From TrEMBL, chain A:
UniProt main location, coarse: nucleus
Pfam family membership, one: RecA-like_ORC2
Domain named Origin recognition complex subunit 2 RecA-like: residues: 65-240
GO CC terms: nuclear origin of replication recognition complex
GO biological process, one term: DNA replication
GO molecular function annotations of the record: DNA replication origin binding
Protein name: Origin recognition complex subunit 2
Keyword field contains Nucleus: yes
Membership in a protein family: Belongs to the ORC2 family.
Species assigned in the record: Neolentinus lepideus HHB14362 ss-1
TrEMBL record, chain B:
Cellular location(s): Nucleus
Domain annotation Origin recognition complex subunit 3 winged helix C-terminal: ranges: 561-717
Region (Disordered): 633-677
Lineage, uppermost ranks: Eukaryota, Fungi, Dikarya, Basidiomycota, Agaricomycotina
UniProt protein name: Uncharacterized protein
Domain of life: Eukaryota
Biological processes, Gene Ontology terms: DNA replication initiation
Amino acid sequence: MSNDIEESHSILAETAFDAYFVQASKSSRTSDHVFSNLVEPLSAEEYHAAMKSLPEQSFPFGQDARLRSHHSQYFPQFIRELNAGFNILFFGLGSKRDTLNQFAVQACAKYGNCVVVNGFQPNFTVKDMLNSIINIPDVTSLDPQSQTLDSQARRICDYYASASKRPLYLIVHNIDAPNLRTTKARSCLSILCGSPAVRVAASVDLLHAPLLWSSTESLTRKRSSSSVAHRGYAWLWHDLTTLVPHDFELSLADRSSITGASGFMGTGHARLQQDHFANGVAMTEEAAQHILASVTEKARKLFTMMTTIQVKAIDEAVDVSVAGDLQQFAIGYDTLFNAARDNFIATNDTALRSLLGEFKDHGLVLSSTVGGPGGGEVLWIPLRKERLLRVVETLELTA
Amino acid sequence: MANVAGLNDPNQTVICIPYAGRDDEQEEALLSESLYSPHQSRDLPDGFELRMEVYRAAWQDCLDRVQSIIEALNAPKIQQLAEEVLSASSPSQAVANLPYPEIPTFCLHGPPAYFEDVTREIVDTPNVAGCHLHPSDCSNITAAMKSLVSNFVNSSDTQANSKKRPAASLASYDINTLRAWYNHFDEGTYTQLMVIFHQFEQFDSAVLNDLFYICSLTLPELPFVFILSLSSPPTPSYLHAIYPRDTLALLRVKKTVAPHGWPLAKRILEDTFFSLDFEPNIMIGAPTLEYIVDYFTRYNESIDAILTVLQLTYMKHFDEPLTVLARDSLLGTDSLAEAEQKLSEPASFPFLDSLLTRMSFPSPQPDLSSQPEIRDDWSVMTVASLLTSVDTLRESFQARLRDIKVGYRLLDVVIGVLGEMGHAVGKKGKTDVERNDVEFMCRVIRGRCAKDSKNVGAVVKELSLTEAKELLSSMHKFFQDLPSHLKRKEEKARVKIVSWNSQLQRGKEGREFVALLETIGDWVTTYLDERLKGLEECRLRDIWYTGSSPFPSELINPAPRATIMSALLHPHEYIRSASGNGETSQHQQTPKLWELPDTSILFRRYLEGGKMINVYDWYESFAVVLESQRNEMRRKRQKGRQGDGGDPSTPSPSKNKGKGKAREVDDEVVSEDEGEDGVEWRMQVQARFIRGLHELDYMGFIKHTGRKADHVLKTVFDVLD
């Protein structure tokens, strides 16, 4: 049977459809490992430190400058297409931000006012865009008290079509971003895109971005109309593969979480962050210092003691590769209590519990029960070894 | 780039870059700083601007023509519709004895552009107040009512309304506000309140149900008329499918359909490029025509699509330096003498050279009796004579094009008449009309109509007397109706037809009739053959004819998904093509997995996985690749160092303490390992993994699901090659 299949494989070329059906037909077998349990998330500082230490040669594509200069030689062509009554949509792998910004400064700004819109920014609103267009020195004469976004957009188009002798260039990074996908934003954009005096060059990164516009919408040509706001996009598509990572676009993403890139967009952002803090997952050095600064001397002593025990445990660990999971270095409650009593930090259970309470509330100390209902409680600090050491160091310095 | 503040600040949402050009009108000069010229080696120094100038003029001609055709087609319909709409509120139109009045409603099925023309026509009429509603205005009934009311009230605020707003105390979404506003005008100021719904299919039907109901309550007092713009077909009707009967009962619906479909498109193509009274500067070639019909039938049946295809064809055509001569030979100067001078300047030599080469190049088919003889001896050619001969060639190209058009039209007429009589001519191949039509046009342009003309001739020979009379009279009418400049040229043919006609009228019979038909048939074949010779043979035809150059279809029909995937899988190819050394053999071998960027490595692993991916497994597999990458890098570095140090067997004099250089390097590597290993390396791997993961997430390759802890769903399935 398997022979048959193999033979058929050699005759027929496998397609993406086959891949889908093959994978969808069987249950996918994956391991039981859970990433966030096994690997301690990186804090923002650690992430940046790690990225900075990244040796240049680990990118075999340091040559993306070549790609960039390859693209910049087409700027006059892009300008020509914009001036011929089209809007341009750039697609392809990699961040197109730098190239488009370069395009804006080097080419567009020579022909008229230019507005660069960071659509990928989670705080971006269409109102920002319209307001800053209206705040361009020449345009301030425009009546600012129009109520709706649409009428504001219409007025901008009218102004550039009649009063201004130069067009407006609108560079939209990530026009497929959630904030620009809302009905309101799209209606406003379609008005701007439909005006001959407003020339739009936008980029998309999403795989499914073309689905945002119907074929009628994306082909509707620009028209200057006086009474009705004409809507349409008049897109021309250009491949702008740069292979540059989206570091800038994702600079506000939460690098400590797997869902960081999709979670940071839109409204889900704040909620997600809160969840993380409540779980204590995103404990940072700074946060630890803040907590420690506000607790009693005894509590600080307790923390130092716990750190010493935990660091010792980490050092003793033979298998370094699974060092990500800190729970395995946890201290049993009984051990901690004995140690605390020996060091005169807490003489009874209540005292120790009240000292630990403050830490637990802020997620600086995590606890868990092991070995079922009869098992004992274990406690650990959710910080890496080197961070722990640094925290204790500063603690001793301030003391 | 650094001079623009905020451009590199991730917290900025919008950055303005003020106009940086000069204030005077020297934009053209600016343009020349960064010329776009794919063929710089044989271009004029200011060729780009000149060509753009010519392009603009040529395209404007073509665009105006197309627009006037559409306008001519639409105008009567629009006029009629406008009259109907304007008289809709008159009492005579209402159905008698209804328990409540209906709102006159017009459904316009057609493209938005047509709709705009209609509404402009109607709203510009005095005594009509207009209000445009878009789907985004009507997310709920309050917002919808507010837009409706404020649109009317505000529109008249600016005009001739010195009184203060009469209903300032009423809520802005209250229909009574509108009523008060309407009542404060003198009677007859507004006879109709036109409400125009754009993109009607995208409105929420629940909201509109309420809106219609509210409006109908005020009906006799407020003379509402609704106009709905629909892009769906008239049958099955969207309105009747979605809206309930009690809503439909409030409306008196009338449907209108804009001119559409292939007949319209064919009309546009024929009247622009095969018209006897219009001569476009640039003739489009067969690939463009084929692309138009393909796009029209497959993707989008819109006139805008056709216009865009035409414009892009024009734009592409004018990339070629020689096209600066498309309209005249003046090269942007005022007279031929100045053009001559300009061409004689050293800077223009590359252009001159390429023009000369093209002129002296033998034409593809030398049997051009109709082509004026141009001196092939380029050595005696002066710049002036070169320019005049371009003029001559242009004239001869246009003459050839005129012939083709006459032939095309005549063939069309004859086939049409014969078809009506029941004689099938050339009905073969494709069954769909669109393709047949376009194929016919392409054959004509390419000069491959011998078969058609032969077939026509053969059919003519077998006609009956009445049929022959009918054919001759319609042919006569065709020649009679030619524009004057062509009529003179085709005088001979007309005279011939008149004489045959009179012979037939005299009633020939038997053998004489057959002989006459034979003559007519042969003449038709020869005449058509003479006319339909194709454009390919004309000299310098690529100045005026886009020929067989393909249409740049990726501009309007791209493959972004495939582009992203191939860039992820084969990033090396992009670098290679950008740096322009596609043929270097050492790069030909496919790079190893560890040589790829992080995101590509992750993506490979992604494709290999099942439909669901455990992030931890993914991470581990990624770490393995990075590990081997690190080892390879180390080896490379080591090799590099050895290479730098010259022959490793010769120890350097200063460090010669019993250790070879190679050994030293090894030690260094080991010590480096110790530093890199452990925590720092793991953190780097993790950071790179997270970055790659986010990168893929950002592009939509990952769907997060709560079904299983730290598992993600794949959105893309493909086979690794």
